[in-house]
Amino acid sequence: MTPSASPDIVVYICCNCIAKEARLPRQWQENGAHVLVREMPCSGKMDARYLLHAFEGGSRGLCVVACPKGECRLAQGNYRAEIRVGVVRRLLAEIGVEAERVELLHVSPNDPPDRLEPVLRDAVRRICSLGAITPSALNSAGKADSAGSAPGG
Questions:
Q1: In this predicted model, what pLDDT tens digit does every residue of 126-149 receive, in sequence order?
Q2: Do residues 43 and 17 touch, judged by C-beta distance below 8 A?
Q3: Beta-carbon contacts of residue 60 (< 8 Å; ≥ 6 apart)
Q4: Measured between alpha carbons, how far apart are the two ends of the chain, in Å?
Q5: Does this model's pTM top 0.85?
Q6: Residues 141 and 95: beta-carbon distance below 8 Å
Q7: Most CB atoms closer than 10 Å: which of 23, 25, 58, 102?
Q8: Which residues have C-beta within 8 Å of that of residue 110, sequence separation ≥ 6?
Q9: Model confidence pLDDT, tens digit, residues 4-17
Q10: CA 146 – CA 13 distance, rounded (Å)
C-alpha cells in the first residue's frame, strides 16, 4: 500500500503521554497493514467524528493512545477519550462491526521510551487479526436503518 492510499489502521496519539525519545515513525507496515500515526495535543481533544471518519475512509481499525488515568496534563483528557472510544465501539457494534477494532491504550511519559512501540504493535496485530470489515455487515446495517426510517410505514 502506498503512503497516499487510505491507511488500514490509524493511530491517534496524545503527544503529552509519550516520552520525547519515544517518537514513532509517521507510518509503517505491520502484518501487511499500512499504519498511519497522527499526533494530537491531548487525547481529550479527540472527537468521535474523527474516529468514525477513519472507518469511513476505509480503515479497518484504530488506536487511541492516552495518558493513564490520573496522569493527564490537561486534567481529564484521558477520561474524555475513554468515553468517546466507548461511544464509537457501541456505534460499530450496532452496525455489525467488531468493537475490538478500536483500541484505547494508556502510556505514561514516565514509561521507558521503548515501551510504546511494542504495546502499539501488539494492538495493531490484534486489529489485523480481525481481517477486513465486510461490506455485507455495513450494507445490512444501512438497509435496516433505511427500512426502519421510512415515514408512514
A1: 999 999 887 665 555 555 454 444
A2: yes
A3: 8, 9, 33, 101, 127, 128, 130, 131, 132, 133
A4: 45
A5: no
A6: yes
A7: 102
A8: 19
A9: 467 899 999 998 88
A10: 35
Shortest CA distance to 9 belongs to which of 63, 64, 82, 89? 63
In terms of Cα–Cα distance, which of 10, 13, 41, 7 is closest to 116?
13
Q: Write down the pLDDT at residue 111.
A: 86
Residues in the chain: 153
Closest CA to 18 of 112, 82, 84: 112
Question: Are 57 and 8 a contacting pair, CB within 8 Å?
Answer: no
Beta bridge partners of 13: 39, 65
When computed from its CA atoms, the radius of gyration of the chain, rounded to whole angstroms, is 17
Output the DSSP codes for 18-54: S-GGGPPPSEEEETTEEEEEEEES-GGG--HHHHHHH
Cell numbers that stand for 122 in this block: 501488539
Residue with cell 494530537: 40
Backbone angles phi, psi at 118, to 5 degrees: -65, -35
For helices 77-94 and 48-56, what crossing angle results, to 10°? 40
